[in-house]
Structures are given as C-alpha cells and as structure tokens.
Amino acid sequence: MQELPDEHATRAFGARLAATCPLRGLVFLQGDLGAGKTTLVRAFLRALGHVGPVKSPTYTLVEPYEIGGRRILHFDLYRLADPEELEYLGVREDMDDATLNLVEWPSQGDGWLPVPDLVLSLSASGEGRRLELSSGTDAGREWVARILE
Ligand code: ADP
Ligand code: MG
C-alpha cells in the first residue's frame, strides 16, 4: 500500500510503473470516477516515450498507442453495457495482439477478461489517494518486486 498525497505522486508512480514494465502485460486499474486511473496511465505512457495527448477512452472504449515498437492498448470499460460485448468486439484478440494492456473499470468486463498481471486499486485518502498493488501472475509478482525495490 502506498500513499499518493497529490497528483504529482500519482504521476511519479506512473513513471515508476513504466521504468519497471515487462515487455508484455495486463494491468487492471480499479477505483471510483476521479480516483486517478487515467492520470496514472497518462504518466505511464509519457514515461515510456509517448509524445502528444492521451485521451480518456471513456467513449471510444479503447485508445491504441505505438511506443518504441510496443503496441499498447488503454481501455476504459465504464460504458460497457454488457461484458459479453467484449466477445463480439474482439477485445480478447486485440489484447493478445498488443504487448501491453491497461484496463480501467475491469469489473465491467467480469468473467470476460484474462487474469491480470497487476491490479492497481486507487481510493480516496484525505486530499490525496491510496494505492494498493496486487498481482495475479508470476510476471506480476516480479513486476511488483521491481516497483517496490
Ligand atoms: P479516473 O480516470 O480514475 O476517473 P482521472 O485521472 O481522470 O480519474 O482524474 C483524477 C483527478 O484526481 C484529476 O483531477 C487529478 O488531478 C486528481 N488526482 C490524481 N491523483 C491525485 C492524488 N494522488 N491526490 C489528489 N488528486 C489527484
Ligand atoms: Mg479514467
């Protein structure tokens, strides 16, 4: 568990995530609206070398990025009406083709998403945020160890 007292701390964590990132991975970002999920992803993508805007995929469901030979998909499933939609949208295939997948509101895709390597849960803590890390795979456990080093 980590305290992120301000937005700067959230962005610093995003950069740490990028610095320790494996070549492939699936990351779930949990937390209420305004918890800082997109802020974290934005900092992560910038730290990997993305130049330019990072739009929230709230309406598009997914925004793709090509960064340094990596194909990265940033999902926001908030507006997904039914997790089954992931099936006919071909989301699993898209995820397999990408090297790295970051998913906001993974609970909306319950039962239709693969096991995540890393789960980041953001919650309110005073004026700031609290971050909890957990891992669902060996790759994720190694990633967490690198983050906490
Ligand atoms: P989400 O994608 O989870 O809905 P956003 O990243 O779009 O949230 O928005 C988060 C908001 O909270 C932004 O206004 C950002 O400035 C602010 N914020 C991010 N991290 C922190 C933090 N650690 N402490 C306080 N405010 C934060
Ligand atoms: Mg968001």
Explain this structure.
The protein is of the alpha/beta class. The chain has helices at residues 7-19, 37-48, 85-88, 91-97, 138-148; strands at 2-4, 25-30, 62-67, 70-76, 100-104, 118-125, 128-135. The longest helix is centred in the N-terminal third of the chain and has 13 residues, at 7-19. It is globular and about 40 Å long. A seven-stranded mixed beta sheet has the order 1-7-6-2-5-4-3, with helices on both faces. The chain has one domain (2-148): P-loop containing nucleotide triphosphate hydrolases (Rossmann fold, 3-Layer(aba) Sandwich). The model has no long low-confidence stretch (mean pLDDT 95). The protein is built from five helices and seven strands, in the order E-H-E-H-E-E-H-H-E-E-E-H. Magnesium ion binds next to helix 2.
